[in-house]
Design a protein that fits this description.
- This protein is α/β, with parallel strands linked by helices and 804 residues long.
- It is built from 23 helices and 27 strands.
- Strands 12-11-13-14-19-18-17-15-16 form a nine-stranded mixed sheet. An eight-stranded parallel β-barrel has the order 1-2-3-4-7-8-9-10, surrounded by four helices.
- Helix 6 (147-161) runs parallel beside helix 10 (256-285).
- It starts with 6 loop residues before the first helix and ends in a 20-residue tail after the last helix.
Length: 804
């Protein structure tokens, strides 16, 4: 780092590009007289809490907005580092503004928005091309497979540094997603070098600060468990490689070589995207700066690989976006343990980023107190930093209650800040779950993002959370290192890597395991082929079964599955389990499992739908005879709850079937008790099923607020021992003493409200003292948010939609 060094010396040494080096498309040249002349500015301490407000750099510099915001945040949160995270290239007057920012004890970050570079990049050809011939310079994404594009991005960063900036963040650091890209000759040549491992690879952090370098085939093997040679793609040499087109493979009549080619292509652009993260980090390092990023979200098409981004030695913090509905907190509760485990091993942290309205504008989807609850919930899963954006109006207008629209936007940021700080100050954390789900992440696979959606296709995840099962998720590349900690495994990866076959065999040989799976999973060995597109057509399922059940090298999760057989054609019938009827469904195909000694637990019509088998090694296998993605959702949810009960999976609470709640339980690190976040599940799923952006007319109808007239939800929370408990609701202020007997059940209920944070602890003097402090703090929070829990319900449609 350059902290304590003189930036002028670095500039004089020629680290940054000079005027003579400027290409015609470099619109970000900084003249000599505008350069920063002082010492390198300090960076935030990553070990301490950091809050950021994102906005236009010129807004921060105008009308006292940025400086006024610093003064207000520092007054309210004096122990927290605060960063102005400024989008757009800074004006040449920035150095004088930076002096004022840092004199106030705050920090400055430059956010780079790729969409603003489109006009400049138009002249930076030849361009990366999509599979439909589109040039790539038009949207808010980053691709730099050509030398001119890389040169442009590097000079933009280094020119910004000339103004004194040493903290960068890339907005929407994603690969272009509207079609597949890198079909131009320059990009293909780059990919051929990766296949031949002629690049310098990715430098990754490991335990205890160790470093190692991997190249493309190491990366490919991590996800697919194998490596290809040119002949495996019907090539004589990697110099002949050219990517196939996705549509031709997934909906045409492809050869085996075509299918392998597509799998390779998916991971090639993921690998290149990681290389661009590494380039940005190293370019920043040339001037003693750090580089962070916002990803939205991790997915097959935008190439974000959050596991490997956190492993990169030369890159900084990644911020996960949680926009839209609070329902996305379920995904954080289920999947964050996996991301956090990996990031901590690399000495990294993970940031949380929100938006004040769709795209950062208009009415926020949460009221200020709901933003408090949502952030308190999310941060309990391990997020270290909080950012929210954008501004509207001046900061003076945002602070003034008379300007209701602008004031509400500031209060929503502030509500999120209080939720973040309360979770951090109380050291809330999610304990290690009792059950584990293993499933595929979106890197290279047709499956939903882990960031937003708990109900990833062909998994039990979201339905398990609805049943309050104590479960977390991992992926095959991480499973071997955590498997021994769990006795109950919901095993649902789309493909099992060959390198996992022996570890799985050893894991099951110990006995005493419960393994729950379904349909094709028990025979789906990874052959380096994506058999299923998003629509999972029946012919794809049949092709997959043919290749796996009839091959000479076939594999089964357990020998008991060797009698599995795919029966094509629809099956219709009533689903029955545990003496009740769950609903009538139709599934497009069915798997027979006539295992001797199998016990039928559920039926569809006259056919088994769930079968249990106890192996000679002492394991219990639970098998659903259909794809989970093709079971009607309401029926699947009931089926999953009963299946978890049959497998004796540990639960956090007993659901209320009539009035279901979404429940996330956290331990407190500063007191002997729990914090439980409770939402009304029926309302949340009714209004919050769309997790990201939605049409403006729909957005205008949805407002997540505390009051919910006529609503009722609850659950019976399971405490760890019998006794008398003092339960206190943070938002409503309601308090009650409740006894838990040998069942360990403690009733929790929301009446007429959408959500609350509920503190639960034994009724001891220490716990009562803790709650007394919380009550005092509650007055501060509610007062600064102008919130009265007894106030009437707000109208959803039309309320504070805009400044008019």
């Amino acid at each position: 780092m350059l902290n304590g060094k003189n930036i002028a010396a670095v500039l004089a040494a020629g680290t940054l590009c000079s005027a003579a080096e400027i290409a015609p498309w470099d619109k970000y040249h900084i003249p000599e007289e505008s350069r920063w002349r002082g010492e390198a500015l300090p960076l935030p301490d990553p070990a301490r809490d950091i809050m950021l407000f994102g906005s236009n750099v010129e807004w921060f510099m105008a009308d006292g907005n940025g400086l006024g915001m610093i003064d207000e945040v520092r007054r309210l949160f004096p122990d927290t580092q605060f960063v102005l995270s400024a989008v757009f290239f800074p004006p040449k007057e920035l150095p004088e503004f930076l002096k004022q920012v840092y004199a106030r004890g705050a920090f400055f970050q430059s956010q780079k928005a790729p969409v603003l570079d489109a006009d400049a990049l138009k002249t930076a050809g030849p361009h990366p091309l999509g599979d439909q011939g589109k040039e790539v310079h038009t949207e808010n994404w980053v691709i730099a497979t050509t030398p001119n594009y890389r040169d442009f991005y590097r000079k933009k960063l280094l020119n910004t540094a000339k103004l004194g900036v040493n903290n960068f963040k890339q907005v929407d650091f994603v690969w272009p997603w509207d079609q597949r890209y890198a079909y131009d000759d320059i990009s293909v040549a780059l990919f051929r070098d990766y296949l031949a491992e002629k690049d310098d690879g990715l430098t990754l952090r490991g335990d205890n600060g160790s470093l190692r370098t991997i190249k493309f085939w190491d990366y490919f093997e991590f996800y697919r468990g194998l490596r290809f040679r040119p002949a495996d793609l019907n090539l004589r040499d990697w110099k002949e490689y050219r990517p196939v087109r996705e549509a031709e493979v997934m909906h045409g009549a492809p050869t085996l070589y075509d299918r392998r080619n597509l799998t390779v292509f998916f991971l090639l652009y993921h690998y290149e995207h990681l290389r661009q993260y590494q380039r940005f980090g190293r370019w920043a390092g040339e001037v003693g700066a750090i580089h962070e990023a916002t990803v939205n979200p991790e997915s097959l098409y935008n190439a974000c690989d959050n596991i490997f981004i956190s492993r990169l030695n030369d890159f900084g913090t990644v911020y996960y976006e949680y926009f839209g509905s609070p329902l996305n907190s379920e995904a954080a509760y289920l999947f964050m343990p996996s991301y956090l485990r990996d990031a901590r091993r690399s000495g990294k942290r993970i940031g949380l980023i929100k938006e004040l309205g769709q795209g950062g504008h208009g009415r926020p989807h949460n009221t200020p107190i709901m933003e408090y609850i949502h952030n308190f919930d999310l941060v309990g899963n391990g997020f270290s930093y909080y950012q929210n954006e954008w501004e509207e109006g001046t900061f003076a207008q945002m602070k003034d209650p008379a300007n209701a629209y602008f004031h509400n936007r500031w209060k929503v940021w502030l509500g999120g800040a209080y939720g973040y700080k309360d979770a951090r100050n109380l050291k809330t954390f999610r304990p290690r779950a009792k059950a584990l789900q293993v499933t595929s992440r979106s890197g290279g696979f047709y499956t939903e993002s882990w960031i937003w959606d708990a109900q990833v296709r062909n998994t039990f995840g979201g339905d398990l959370l609805a049943a309050h099962v104590d479960v977390e998720s991992t992926f095959p590349g991480q499973f071997p290192e955590v498997a021994e900690e769990f006795g109950t495994i919901f095993y649902t990866p789309l493909f099992t890597r060959r390198i996992d076959v022996e570890p799985l065999k050893r894991f099951l040989s110990q006995g005493g395991r419960r393994l729950i799976t379904h349909s094709f999973i028990p025979y789906s060995i990874d052959r380096g082929v994506n058999y299923f597109a998003w629509d999972e057509q029946s012919h794809q399922i049949a092709h997959h079964a043919q290749d796996n059940l009839n091959s000479s090298d076939r594999w089964f999760l357990d020998p008991a599955f060797s009698c599995l057989k795919l029966r094509q054609g629809e099956v219709t019938g009533e689903v029955r389990m545990a003496g009740g009827t769950l609903g009538a469904i139709t599934i497009p195909e069915y798997w027979e499992w006539p295992v001797p000694g199998g016990e039928v637990l559920a039926e569809i019509g006259t056919l088994p739908l769930v079968t249990r088998f106890r192996t000679s090694q002492g394991n219990e296998l639970y098998y659903v005879h259909a794809r989970l993605s093709r079971i009607e959702p309401k029926t699947r949810r009931k089926l999953t709850a009963l299946l978890a009960e049959a497998a004796e999976a540990d639960r956090l609470a007993i659901p209320d079937a009539e009035h279901p709640a979404l429940l996330h339980a956290y331990r407190l690190g500063t007191a002997s008790g729990d914090a439980v976040v409770l939402y009304d599940r029926a309302l949340l799923e009714r209004d919050g099923a769309v997790l990201g952006y939605r049409p403006a007319e729909e957005w205008a109808k949805i407002l997540f607020q505390y009051r919910a007239d006529g609503a009722c939800s609850g659950a019976r929370y399971l405490v760890r021992k019998p006794g008398e408990y003092l339960v206190w609701h943070f938002i409503s202020g309601r308090s009650e003493v409740v006894s838990a007997d040998h069942t360990l059940e403690l009733p929790l209920r929301l009446e007429g409200v959408f959500a609350d944070v509920i503190y639960i602890g034994e009724n001891t003097p220490e716990w009562r003292g803790f709650l007394d402090e919380r009550r005092r703090h509650r007055k501060t929070v509610l007062g600064n948010l102008d919130f009265d829990p007894a106030a009437p319900m707000l109208p959803s449609a039309g309320y504070l939609l805009n400044a008019d």
